[in-house]
Specification:
Blueprint (H helix, E strand, L loop, with lengths): L1 H15 L3 H28 L18 H19 L2 H16 L3 H10 L1 H15 L13 H27 L4 H17 L2 H19 L4 H15 L1 H41 L4 E3 L6 H13 L6 E3 L11 E5 L6 H6 E16 L2 H8 L7 E15 L2
Parallel strand pairs: 1-2, 1-3
Antiparallel strand pairs: 3-5, 4-5
Amino acid sequence: MAFSAVPLCFAIPLLALRDRRGVFLLLVSLLTTVMILAYIILLHWIRGSYSLVSSDRYGSEISFRFSTLNFGWIKYKNMMVQAFGPLVLIIITSFVTRLLLASRSRTSLTVFFNKNFSQCFFLAAIVFSIGIFLPWPQHLARYILLFVIWFFLFAAHETFANAGFAVRSLIKRNRVALVSVSFMIGCLVCLFSPSYLIIVCGPIFAILAAIFFMRSKILPVLICTRSYYLGAVVVPIIFVFWSGVWSYQAFQRHFFDVEYFEARVAERLAETMKSGQCIVSLLKPTQEKMGGLNAYVRLVKQVQPCFRFASRLDDVPIGELVFAISPFQKFDEIDKKCAVWWKEERNTEYFVPVGYDTWRASIIGRPKTFLENHVTTDTAVLAKRVR
């Protein structure tokens, strides 16, 4: 939807203005819509009867209540801060500040839109890619991957636009001192000020520059502002590249262990069902993990799955086999009412990069670790209900 709806929203007003870019965006929207529909049809044809649950399981859980939207926004905001530090705030504030400086007249806004059409398009896609997941209650880190694609395209355009403007100011206008001082101020502010002040410092710096150079001279204000934001992105970009290397190594190990663990679990389920026994699962049939285990048993092990589902342990009849897997269940009740027939555990120790504030504190002289040690435990249990 993000690849078809956003181009369509931009294409309609451009077509009304008889702008050729509207035709291009309309074709992009139509092409991506056809590709999405083809993918859905193909996926439905491949899965066929393999689908364990109804096809509307995701849509049935969408909620537009304020509590769901607010919780989703908090979760995704924290994920973005953990992954990118203040980079998102700096890039968006840079764009908004330039927009405000250009809003002196309708002509200036038109010129700004034409020169920054790509950034406007990517910003709309960013808003859409986050907003579309807010009503969905399962707020997982992988759902911001679409946001990451659009954001880095937006950040690259904004950063290179500021860099090009600064270079032209150095070469053509000989504003070496102005560019250098503004650039260094941006670096220092991002390095030493609290993260929540970084978004405020940019507009304040632009206002001070406007007062210093008087309102009639907009060019020096633009040079100061864009050079400042160019310097401000240096530190968080270093953080993103640094944390990306460590994150790749940490997640590679973590996900390898998870896949190995789940393959062992699926192997045991297949062996049990092959012997003719049916299993009562305490996982919801809408859980993605349940769908993956079912597909593995059917497609890889060539065994007909025999699952029944119960929302709680008390609904499972005496003598039935019960399946539970963390982190979806707590095993205290199972230990009291069941006899454990088979149990698989996995303990994984891995390191992940620290957050931006901790990382920044380390490089400016307050020694702290660059990596945090995490230990995860996964447990799967097959047990017989005895009481």
